[in-house]
Amino acid sequence: MRYLPGILAMATIVVASNILVQHLLGQWLTYGAFTYPLAFLVNDTTNRLQGARAARIVVVSGFFVGVICSLIGSQIEGEFGPLVSFRVALASGLAFLAGQLIDISVFNRLRNRVRWWPAPLAATLIGSVLDTCVFFTIAFAVSLSFLEPGNDVTWANETLPLLGLGPAAPLWISLAAADLCVKLVLGIFALLPFRAMVWRFSPRIA
User: Fold this and answer.
1) How far is residue 101's CA from residue 154's CA, in Å, rounded to a whole number?
2) What is the mean pLDDT of residues 38-59?
């Protein structure tokens, strides 16, 4: 199957990120923040080499793998309840679809530019912003508590200096800001492997 490499790569990233997100790295991040952005690299590389239809198939495959991971996580009890709550599962799925699909749309609008880098860069950065906003808002904003009344997210709405330095803001805003910063930085660095893979497998369209 010609789409299998992209599907396997996306599935691996989704599974790894669902595991690593359970492990904290400092005050604002988890280890999953450093693997999840690679989904945009897989998406953009597939799009460039095989087209938008192939990229959508890879994204949908990753979404279903994420759903399976969420179902498994919801059955595992952690210190404060299930590892994956309904809100987090919903936020994760919607954020993944929104971010990855807008990535495809932006990439397609820019794919015929003379230079090779505007399409993957703009697609990844815009997709990352949307992904982050959707996930953290749905998962932790107190105004959306009706989505899962039994899930107490008051801890995420504790008012603290933004990233420990800036103006006062809910904790989840700092978590979102730190996560987005990692996505944006990795999105820039991902241009190098994107270029290398496209050149390796199809130099005429690199």
Assistant:
1) 31
2) 97
